[in-house]
């Protein structure tokens, strides 16, 4: 009887549709630990603020033998958490929010902005309550207990916040060597977020170590499931490297498995990435530009991003196409996935603390690094609408951060409507027995 009523009251007439803003960012920080003075305000404070923040990092530690084969160094991850927490729970600054399209025009005109993002000084405290864990092989999945747990994170946020009223709570965080993925939600949404799960896939040394690979976090908001995948794929621009990156993606999709949450009997609980309702993939995908070094250098020196991108997107000249789009169009990777149009300059590789690409400052004996859009954000399926897709201008790393804001459709059960319907029909079963917990 209860099962029949559950099915009846899961119909669309008893559901509400909500629109939530989801901020997604990826940043390869080149093995550098953040100083306490690093200011993230310009990066994280959007207008209006997002409901969910999904922040993925690559190379939060140097990818040396000690970090890949030895004990995981989670000190930098704790510092990033402290900085993010401080920024999200502080009052937004008074600087006006810049229109991304205006910034785009400035970039295409060749002018180099001097933004203040990530530069001003401010103290921060490190969180000492986080739990950490890493996958030892590519077919191992972690149980929810190995992530930052809800009970810990919410209590911790309230005690660490000066006025006792945090606006955002840490929902989950996970590190695998240099890859780090963290999810934050608005405090008033925390009771509606559940079924947190994580899965790690190593694709680095020997095909399974964690210097390359992915971290995926699965969660449900109301009745809608989300999956966030943060990856660092095989590097290099030699012949065959694209095939290795394609293989990384296929293995991540194949081997990512989410354990069933203890006590949850829902047979529809997603176990793979593609089982979810809303899916976003972010990271340093390492796909390069299929363009000669000399021609790329000339375009960089002219700051002619617009010509490069128009040709890239219109497919007018095959030798100007970004290799990820080549592989996608050929059906070899990310088939059916979507990516917004790129209206920003290549995000890699920059000289240290500079607005100049490494190709411009290269010493004759140094390896050639053709600029590329390595850092990307893609999504799969329906119910996600991209509102912006831009990059930041921090000089902290040789990569520029990339971020996007999505509007996500989320279903929820309207309890009052069900109660009213049951009251009219004379049903005697307690409504709480029927509603998802």
From TrEMBL:
One Pfam family it belongs to: Exo_endo_phos2
Region spans: Disordered: 113-147
Keywords for this protein: Hydrolase
Every Inositol polyphosphate-related phosphatase domain range: 18-414
Family matches, as SUPFAM superfamilies: DNase I-like (SSF56219)
Segments of skewed composition (Polar residues): 117-135
GO biological process: phosphatidylinositol dephosphorylation
InterPro entries in alphabetical order: Endo/exonu/phosph_ase_sf (IPR036691), IP5P_plant (IPR045849), IPPc (IPR000300)
GO molecular function: inositol-polyphosphate 5-phosphatase activity; phosphatidylinositol-3,4,5-trisphosphate 5-phosphatase activity; phosphatidylinositol-4,5-bisphosphate 5-phosphatase activity
Family: Belongs to the inositol polyphosphate 5-phosphatase family.
Name of the protein: Inositol polyphosphate-related phosphatase domain-containing protein
Organism taxonomic ancestry: Eukaryota, Viridiplantae, Streptophyta, Embryophyta, Tracheophyta
């Amino acid at each position: 009887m209860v099962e029949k009523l559950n099915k009846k009251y899961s119909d669309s007439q008893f559901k509400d549709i909500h629109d939530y803003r989801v901020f997604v960012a990826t940043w390869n920080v080149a093995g550098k630990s953040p100083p306490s003075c690093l200011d993230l305000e310009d990066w994280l404070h959007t207008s209006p603020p997002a409901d969910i923040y999904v922040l993925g990092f690559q190379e939060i530690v140097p990818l040396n033998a000690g970090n890949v084969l030895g004990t995981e160094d989670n000190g930098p991850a704790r510092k990033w958490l402290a900085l993010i927490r401080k920024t999200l729970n502080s009052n937004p600054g008074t600087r006006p929010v810049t229109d991304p399209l205006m910034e785009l025009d400035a970039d295409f005109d060749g002018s180099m902005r001097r933004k203040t993002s990530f530069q001003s000084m401010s103290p921060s405290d490190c969180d000492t309550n986080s739990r950490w864990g890493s996958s030892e092989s590519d077919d191992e999945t972690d149980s929810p207990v190995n992530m930052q747990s809800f009970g810990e994170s919410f209590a911790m946020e309230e005690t660490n916040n000066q006025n006792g009223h945090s606006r955002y709570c840490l929902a989950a965080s996970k590190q695998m060597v240099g890859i780090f993925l963290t999810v934050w939600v608005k405090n008033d949404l925390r009771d509606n977020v559940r079924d947190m799960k994580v899965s790690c896939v190593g694709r680095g040394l020997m095909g399974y170590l964690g210097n390359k690979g992915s971290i995926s976090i699965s969660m449900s908001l109301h009745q809608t499931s989300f999956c966030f995948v943060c990856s660092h794929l095989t590097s290099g621009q030699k012949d065959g490297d694209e095939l290795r990156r394609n293989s990384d993606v296929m293995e991540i999709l194949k081997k990512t498995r989410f354990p069933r949450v203890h006590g949850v009997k829902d047979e529809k609980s997603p176990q793979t990435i593609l089982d979810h309702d809303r899916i976003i993939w972010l990271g340093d995908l390492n796909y390069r530009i299929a363009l000669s070094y000399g021609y790329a250098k000339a375009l960089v020196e002219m700051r002619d991003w617009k010509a490069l991108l128009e040709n890239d997107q219109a497919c007018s000249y095959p030798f100007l196409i970004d290799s990820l789009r080549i592989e996608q169009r050929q059906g070899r990777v990310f088939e059916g996935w979507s990516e917004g149009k790129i209206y920003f300059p290549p995000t890699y590789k920059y000289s240290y603390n500079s607005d100049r690409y490494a190709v411009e400052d290269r010493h004759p004996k140094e390896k050639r690094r053709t600029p590329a859009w390595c850092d990307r954000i893609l999504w799969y399926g329906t119910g996600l609408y991209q509102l912006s897709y831009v990059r930041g201008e921090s000089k902290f790393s040789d990569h520029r951060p990339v971020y996007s804001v999505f509007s996500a459709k989320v279903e929820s059960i309207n309890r009052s409507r069900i109660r009213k319907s049951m009251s009219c029909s004379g049903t005697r079963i307690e409504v709480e027995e029927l509603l998802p917990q």
